[in-house]
Amino acid sequence: MKKEDVFSLEELYFICSVIGAGNLYGLPDLSMFTMIKQEAAHKATQQMQAKGLLDKNGKLTPIGGYILNAFKQYHESKTYLVVNGDFIGFNNEQELIILSSPDQVGIQMEITTKEAYFRKLYQNVRLIRREAEEEEQTFLKKLVPRSERAALNQLPLEGGLLLKKVRQPTEETWFIKRHEGKLYGYQGSRVYQLSQYWLIKWLLDELNIPISKEEVRQQ
Q1: What pLDDT shows up at residue 213?
Q2: Which InterPro entries does the record match to this protein (predicted)?
């Protein structure tokens, strides 16, 4: 992570004001800075000059223009995905713009290809690289009977995977957990047993990556 990729809330407030956005999806509420506009703008200007995004006269540099355009494209994305702490907007057919706060200090922006992001998830998220059990070849998802849900609802949240798709006015949210070798998906009050193929298919479909099951196994 480079310092040029991490932005303070003051910088983000400044960027939002320039691109005409009240806020950006996934960010903390920036409205608190409306009471201290001048102070926030002054601090943001200093920080962005230190990064080379603004010149000494406060004008955008070429890299600064590139960064602002990326934030504008993120703001204008028609669809957002959330994968745990990653907030994902769509730049074009090949690229993603990802906002995250991996160390709780500022907001990191990353521009990457869809394929590179999927490979990163596959390598780093245990639930995604999990080996499917043999029975999972016979189904994608199936509703867990009501009599079994209470026990599953008591499972700890640690190690789970949050997936969300937002395309106004609709929103789809899943929380994925593993228990006794099986994969479960929570959606509202419903609990499903999921196959690994469902999980991989959901990610590939929502990232719009055409890839075969054999290619997934080779990641």
Answers
A1: 53
A2: EsaE
